[in-house]
Amino acid sequence: MLDGGAVAGRLQPLSSFPFPCYIPLDHQRELSPVKDTVLELKNITDQLVHDLSGLKFGPPVTHVYQPLEYARASWDLYCSKYGQGNRRVILVGMNPGPFGMAQVGVPFGEVSLVRDWLEISAPIDRPKNEHPKRQIQGFECKRSEVSGARLWGWAKEKFGTPQAFFKDFFVVNWCPLVMMEESGRNRTPDKLPVDERTPLELVCDHALKATIELFDPEFAIGIGAFAESRVRHIFGKTPNMTIGRVLHPSPASPLANKDWPGQMDQALKKLGVF
């Protein structure tokens, strides 16, 4: 039998009843008002775009694309179709490649899978300062984003439908910017000098923290070492969420070229997702 102090510590009064009524604390989340996570994602995106607009990058970076501006309609559609409600698992990428999110506004955005499997298609504008070797063609782009083909291809094969995948998962990038050198080479955030990287980290960490907290996941998993490092930097050791890493599907990684889907399954099993 529990005494009054024990009951008060574990139960919460429900004030809407005309007599004292208590519910277990572990059921409060179920009875809480449903969060409009889509609206909150829009607010987070608006703030992120605003905060990034003031950052400057010097040589060897010559061009910077912001897909959350010129491909915002596609990103908003991704969020509205698949971003409502909590998630067990958040997968975090680093930043877009030139033939993925840079083209269509969706993380790891392999064009054919975004259009045909995720069923997302929206008008794509052009960046303000377009690189002649990295033109934005939107959903008309014929180049494959290999990392995206592997990630979304794995999800399609594993779960069958987007609805089944997004029931537990959501995919975001830590940074939405695409930074390029004069040659057209992609310059990733970890290669930036400290005076440019530090303000970028502050802005992107803030947005990622808000996004992960919004979805209240059991797992926050970096796709690659860099993304994992940002998640760990933001959250440290938290008893309520497992932080981990899966192998990045980039073809530049020799390991990723050896049955990446199988390695993805094994990594998620090891983390306890499956």
String of helices and strands? HEEHHEHHEHHHHEEHEHEH
CATH superfamily of the largest domain: Uracil-DNA glycosylase-like domain
What oligomeric state do the depicted chains represent? Answer: single chain
Distance between the terminal alpha carbons, to the nearest Å? 38 Å
Helix content percent band: 40-55%
Mean pLDDT score: 90
Briefly note the CATH topology name of the largest domain. Answer: Uracil-DNA Glycosylase, subunit E
| Biggest pleated sheet | 4 strands, parallel
CATH class of the largest domain: Alpha Beta
Strand order of the largest sheet: 5-4-7-8
Kindly describe this structure.
The protein contains 12 helices and 8 strands. β7 (219-223), α11 (225-235) and β8 form a beta-alpha-beta unit. It folds into 2 domains: 1-32, no CATH class; 36-271, Uracil-DNA glycosylase-like domain (Uracil-DNA Glycosylase, subunit E). α3 (37-52) runs antiparallel to α10 and α10 (194-215) packs across α11 (225-235). It starts with a helix and ends with a helix. By secondary structure, it is of the alpha/beta class.
